[in-house]
Amino acid sequence: MIIGLLSCSKEKLSGAHSAAELYSSPFFQNNVNKLIETCDKVYVISGKFGLIELEFVMNNYDLYLGSLNHNDKLIWGNLVIKELLNKNNITKEDKIVVVASNDYYDYVAYGAEYYNIESFIVHENYYDFAK
User: Fold this and answer.
1) Own/partner pairs for 14-18, CB < 8 Å, 24+ apart?
2) Distances (CA, A) of 63 to 54, 88, 124
3) pLDDT tens string 4-29
4) Percentage of the chain modeled with pLDDT above 70
5) Which of 9, 29, 80, 103 has a CA positioned 20 to 30 A from the CA of residue 56?
6) Which tens digits make up the pLDDT trace of 29-44?
7) Residue 126: Cβ within 10 Å count
C-alpha cells in the first residue's frame, strides 16, 4: 500500500469545505490530485488538525506549524503518525510518501522514528512533485 501525506496550505476558501477542497492553492490542488492518482490512501497533514482525511469538513482557519514551539511540533509529529497507524495496518511492504515542506516533513519523520516506521517514509520534493 502507498499512503500519501500532503501538507496543508495557507491559501484557503472561506467557509466550511472538505479538506480536499478547502486548501485552494494551485500547488495543493495539483499535488492532491497527483497523490489521489498514485496512492492507495491520501491524507492532509495540518498544523491545527494533524492527520485529516480528504472528506473531513472544516472551516477556514489560520495556524502554521512553524508558529509552534519545538516541543509542540514533536508532539504534533507523534500524533500524526499515531493517527496514521490507528487508521491503517501498515506493514514493511508499505510506503508513506510525504509531500511537504521540510518543517512538516521533519516532525512527521520524527514521529515515524518514534513509532519505528521511519524506513517507510519517502520525502518527495515539495516544489517538484506536481510537475
Assistant:
1) 14/60, 15/59, 15/60, 16/57, 16/58, 16/59, 17/57, 17/58, 18/54, 18/55, 18/56, 18/57
2) 18, 27, 23
3) 999 999 999 999 999 999 999 988 99
4) 95
5) 103
6) 989 999 999 999 999 9
7) 18
Q: Which residue has the cell 496543508?
A: 8
What are the structural domain ranges in the chain? 2-124
- The label of the residue with cell 484557503 reads 12
The answer, yes or no, to whether residue 125 has pLDDT greater than 90, is no
Provide the grid cell at 131. 510537475
What is the separation, in whole angstroms, between the first and last Cα of the chain? 23
- Grid coordinates representing 57 are 469538513
